[in-house]
Amino acid sequence: MFMPPWLITYQKDQLSGDIVAGIIVSVVLVPQAIAYGMLAGLPPEVALYSSILPLVLYAAFGSSNTLAVGPVGLMSLMTGTALLELNLSSTEQTIAAAHTLAFLVGILLLTLKMIRLSGIINFLSHPVTSGFISASAIIIILSQLKNLLGLSIPRGLPAYETAYRTLEQLPQSNVYSTLIGLFGLLILWLFKAPLTRYLKTRPMNSTARQFASKSGPLLVVALSTFSVYYFSLNTEQLVTIIGHIPAGLPSIQFPDFSIGLVKQLLPNAFVIALIGYLESVSIAKSMASQRREKISASKELQGLGAANIAASISGGFPVAGGFGRSMVNFSSGANTPLASVITAGLVTFTLLSLTPFFFFLPKAILAAIIIVAVAPLINIHAFKQVWRYDKTDALSLLVTFFTVLIINVETGLICGAAISIGIYLQRSTKPHIAVVGQVGNTEHYRNIDRYIVTTDPHILAIRIDENLYFANTNYLEDRIMQLIADKPAIDHVVLICSSISIIDTSALESLESIHHNLGKAAISLHLAEIKGPVMDKLKGSPFIQKISSQNIFLSTHQAMCYLKNRR
Amino acid sequence: MFMPPWLITYQKDQLSGDIVAGIIVSVVLVPQAIAYGMLAGLPPEVALYSSILPLVLYAAFGSSNTLAVGPVGLMSLMTGTALLELNLSSTEQTIAAAHTLAFLVGILLLTLKMIRLSGIINFLSHPVTSGFISASAIIIILSQLKNLLGLSIPRGLPAYETAYRTLEQLPQSNVYSTLIGLFGLLILWLFKAPLTRYLKTRPMNSTARQFASKSGPLLVVALSTFSVYYFSLNTEQLVTIIGHIPAGLPSIQFPDFSIGLVKQLLPNAFVIALIGYLESVSIAKSMASQRREKISASKELQGLGAANIAASISGGFPVAGGFGRSMVNFSSGANTPLASVITAGLVTFTLLSLTPFFFFLPKAILAAIIIVAVAPLINIHAFKQVWRYDKTDALSLLVTFFTVLIINVETGLICGAAISIGIYLQRSTKPHIAVVGQVGNTEHYRNIDRYIVTTDPHILAIRIDENLYFANTNYLEDRIMQLIADKPAIDHVVLICSSISIIDTSALESLESIHHNLGKAAISLHLAEIKGPVMDKLKGSPFIQKISSQNIFLSTHQAMCYLKNRR
C-alpha cells in the first residue's frame, strides 16, 4: 500500500505541533475559502469542498511539510475571469465548468511533471513575478471594493473600468455595508500587526497566543453575522449576505469533459496551472530553506496536480498553496502534512454541522478579509530595489505591472516573460569584449582600460565575455575587424575563451570566417583557455582542423610567452 | 546636392568594369525579372518596372558596391502568397496591392533603420536561415513544375498539395510545353557549369567569356520565343505564352494607402522586409569581405527601403538584392553601383523598344529559368555539417525546413527563430558548474574532473561557466546546496566569476539567498575574478554590502592562499 514518506517516519512528538497548526489553519481557512469563492463568482460550498480532499491528496503526494493548499486569491480571480468568458447562463453550468477547469489544471500539472518541464517557471524572472503579483493584488482589491461599499458593478471589467465605476458610484454607497466593511478592515488590521506585537509582551502559552492572533477573520465573521441577524440588516437589501449553504459533503463525480468546453478553458487552465505552481513552489521553498528541508519541483507538480484533480471530482475549483495560510501553518508549528489532514477534517466538520451559522454572513466582511489578505502582496519596496540595481529589469517589472492592470493577467504574464527573455538576449547580442594585457610580471591578464598592464604591439589578446551564439556572432566579427584595422602592427590575435561555454553552429561558422579573413591579412589566430566541454565539441569540426593544434593554448600566459619567443 | 560617396570618388579606370557588368547583369535580369513576376502572379511589365528606379535608388543610398537589386525569387513567392490572401477580383486591384506592399516594405525597412534595429536579423541563426532557404527553394520549384509541364494547378496551395496534384496530373502534361521546358533546363544547365568550364580552357577575352557564359537565359528565351512564333505553337493552347507587354515607362504614382488594405498586408510586409534585408545583407557582406570593403547594416536598410519605395511609386513590387545576379555583377567586374545604373538604363531601353519580341515567350521557359536559379539554394551539405557539429542546431534547421514546407514561409521563420532562442535559453538554464583545484604548484585552477589537481577539504572552489540570470538562478542555488551537502568538512565556498558577464536582479536575489543559507550553516561565501563591468554594477547592492570586501578576490589563487593561511 502507498504510504507518503512523512507518515512512515512519523514521530509521536510531531503530533502536538500538527494538531495545533491544523486547528489554527482551519480557523483562517474557512472564512478565507468562502471569500475566495465569492471572488471566483462561485457559491461558498464550492470553496469549502475545495478545502477537504485537495488537502489530503497534497499531503499524500506533495513534497512540502508545511504548504497549506486550498483556494487562493490570484487563482480564484483568474478562475472567475475564465468562467465569465464562457458566457454561461446558469449557476449550475458555471459550477460544472469550474470542476472541469480544476481537472484541466490538474492534468496540465501532471503532464508538466511527466514531460519533465518543472523548470518552465524559471523563465519568469523575479521582477516580472513581482510586477505581476503586485498588479494582481490591486485588481483583486479593486474587484472587492464594490462588495465592501454595497455597490453593484458587473464582474469581469478591466481594472481601470472597475476603478472608474467604483469612484463614480461612490456617493451611492450603502452605509450599513460600508460601516460593516470598514469595521472588518479595522479589526483585521489590528489583528495583523498591533495585536500580535501586544500579545508577544504578555506572559501566555505560545499556542494560545498563536490562536488568538490568527482568529481575526473568525471574529469579524462571528461579530458581523450576529449583527446582521440581530438587527435584521438583510431585510430591504440593506446588506448583502451569502445566504444558504447546503449542509453535507460533496458527492464524488467525474467532471464534464465535452470537447467544446475543454477547448475554451484550456488556455486559461494553462496560465492558472503555471501561476498556482509558481506560487506554491516559491512559498514551499522559502519555508523549507528556513528548516533545511528539501522541496522537489517535480513532486510539487505531482502534489498540486493530484490536489486539483481531487478538487475537480469533489465539487471544487482550482487550488494551490496559499501564502498567508502556509505562513500561519508554518509559524503555528506544523511538522508534517498531517496538519493539513487535520485542517481538512475540521472543514468537513464545518460543512456537516456549522453551515447554518454562515447564513447571515455579509459579503462586505468577505471583501474585507480578501483585501487584508492580498494587500501585503503589493510590493513597492521590491520595485525600488530593482530600480536601483538594474533599470531594464525595472522596466520589465513596470511593463508586466501595467499590462496586467490595463489588459489582463494572462497577457501581462506573457509580455513579462517575453520582455525578460528579450532583455537577456539583447544584452548578450553585444558582448563585452576586452583587450587584455599582462599585470606586472604575473600570469594574470586584465582589461587594458581598467588595469595598468603591459601589451605587445604585435599581439592582440582579446577576452570575449560571453557565449558565442547566433545573436552575437556578427558583432564579434565586426569588433575584431575594427580592432585589427586600428592596429596595423598586429601579427597575432589571441582569443581568450575563458567565458565561453557555448559555441553554436552559427558562431562556429563566424569563427571560420574570422580565421579566413585574418589569414588574408597575414594575421594568425590563436585560442587560449578553451573550456573542456567546449573543446570536446569543437574537436573534429572543420574550424579546429584548420587552426593547427599549435595555435591552441591552455592559458593566456602560455600563449603570450610562446608568441613572444617565436618572434 | 546629395552625391553618393562612390560617385564623389569615382575613378576613370572603374568605368570599363562597371559598363561590362551592367550589360551582363541586364542580360540576366530581364528574363529573370519576367519569370519572378510570373512567380508573384503579376504581369511582366510590373517586374520590369521593378528593375529600373529601385536599382538607381539603391545605388544612391545603399552601402554595397556590387549588390544587384531587383525582383528576387523568395520575395516574389511571398508577394504572390500575400496578394492571393487578399482575394481580389481583378488584375488591376492585385497590381495596385503589389505597389502598396512594396511601399510598406520600404517604410518598414526605413523604420528599422530609424529605431536602430538593424540587429534584428541577428536573431535568425545560420541553421534556421539555411533550413528556411532550402525549403523555400523547394516550394518555388514545386510551384513552377505546372508551368513547365503545361498543367493548370491553382496557385497558393500548400507545398505538399501542389506536389501531389502535379504528380496526379503528370499524365495530362502538355507535350510541347514539357519539351520546351526540358530543353530550357538542359541549355541553362549546360551554361551554368560545363560551358563555363569549357570557356575557361579557350583563349579568349575575359569580357567575352563572361558575356558568353551568362547569356544562357537570353539564349533560351530567344530560341523558344522564335520556335513558338515559327511553329505557331501558341494556337489551340498548345503552349502558354506571356503575351502582350505594354511598351513604355511606368508613370510615377503614389500607391493606394487605404487603412483596410494596409492592415491586411502589414504582417506579410514585415516578413517580406525582414527576408529581403536578411538576404541582401548576407550577400553584400560575403562579397564585401572578399574585396575588403565595408557593409553597413544600417545603410543597407536605408538603401533597400529607398529601393522598395521607388518600386512602389514606379509601378513595381517588392525588391531586394538577388544572390545569383549579384554574383554575376561581382564576377563580371562591377566596381561601383554605377553598374546597376547602367543595368537600369538597359532595362529602360528594353521596355521602350523590345517588348514586342517577348510576346511569344513560353511560360515553360520562365519556369526553367526560375528552377535553375533557385535550385542551388537547396543546401544538403549545410545540413550534414550542422548535424555533425550540433544535433540541436540540426533540429532547429529541420523544424524550420518542414514548417516552411508543410505550413508556410512566415510560420516557418517564426518557429525557427523561436526554437533557436529556446534552445539557447535551455542551454543556459543548466549552466556548467565546475569544482576546481590547483594545477601542480601553478596559479591555475582547473576542473577536478578533467585535470590532476589538488584541493583543500575545507574549501570548495566553484567556477560558474555562464551568466547568472533569471532562468538559471534556481539551478545554481540547488547545485551549490547539493555540493555542500556532499562535503561536510567545508567552511568556505569560493565562487569563481570569470565567466560571468551579467548578473541580473533575479540572480542577485539568489546570491543573497545563497549567502544567507550558507551563513546559517556556518560557511562563508567568497567571490573571485569578478569582471570590471559586473563589479561596477554590484557595488552599492545590498548583496555586496553584506559580503565584506575582505571576501572578494582578484584571482582564485589569491583567494585560496588567503583562506589556507587564515585557517
Task: Please name the defining characteristics of this protein.
two-stranded antiparallel ribbon, Transcription Regulator spoIIAA, 8 strands, mainly alpha, elongated
Low-confidence stretches of chain A: none
The end-to-end span of chain A amounts to: 77 Å
Contiguous helical run count of chain A:
25
Instruction: Quote the average pLDDT of chain A.
Output: 88
Question: How many whole angstroms does the radius of gyration of chain A measure?
Answer: 30 Å
> Biggest interface, and residues per chain?
A-B, 63 and 63 residues
Report a brief summary of the structure:
Chain A is mainly α. Chain A has helices at residues 5-8, 15-39, 44-49, 53-61, 73-85, 91-114, 126-149, 159-169, 175-192, 194-201, 206-214, 216-231, 259-290, 297-313, 323-331, 338-354, 363-374, 380-389, 391-406, 409-429, 473-486, 505-520, 532-538, 542-546, 556-566; strands spanning 69-70, 320-321, 433-438, 445-447, 459-464, 492-496, 524-528, 552-553. In chain A, helix 13 (259-290) crosses helix 14 (297-313).
Commentary on this structure:
The structure is a homodimer of 567-residue chains. The first copy, chain A, has 567 residues and is mainly α. The first copy, chain A, folds into two domains: 13-377, no CATH class; 433-566, 2-Layer Sandwich (Transcription Regulator spoIIAA), CATH 3.30.750.24. Chain A is 62% helix and 5% strand. Chain A is built from 25 helices and eight strands. Chain A has helices spanning 5-8, 15-39, 44-49, 53-61, 73-85, 91-114, 126-149, 159-169, 175-192, 194-201, 206-214, 216-231, 259-290, 297-313, 323-331, 338-354, 363-374, 380-389, 391-406, 409-429, 473-486, 505-520, 532-538, 542-546, 556-566, and strands at 69-70, 320-321, 433-438, 445-447, 459-464, 492-496, 524-528, 552-553. In chain A, the strands form two sheets. Chain A has a six-stranded mixed β-sheet with strand order 4-3-5-6-7-8. In chain A, strands 1-2 form a two-stranded antiparallel sheet. In chain A, helix 13 (259-290) packs parallel to helix 15. The N and C termini of chain A lie far apart (77 Å). The model of chain A has no long low-confidence stretch (mean pLDDT 88).
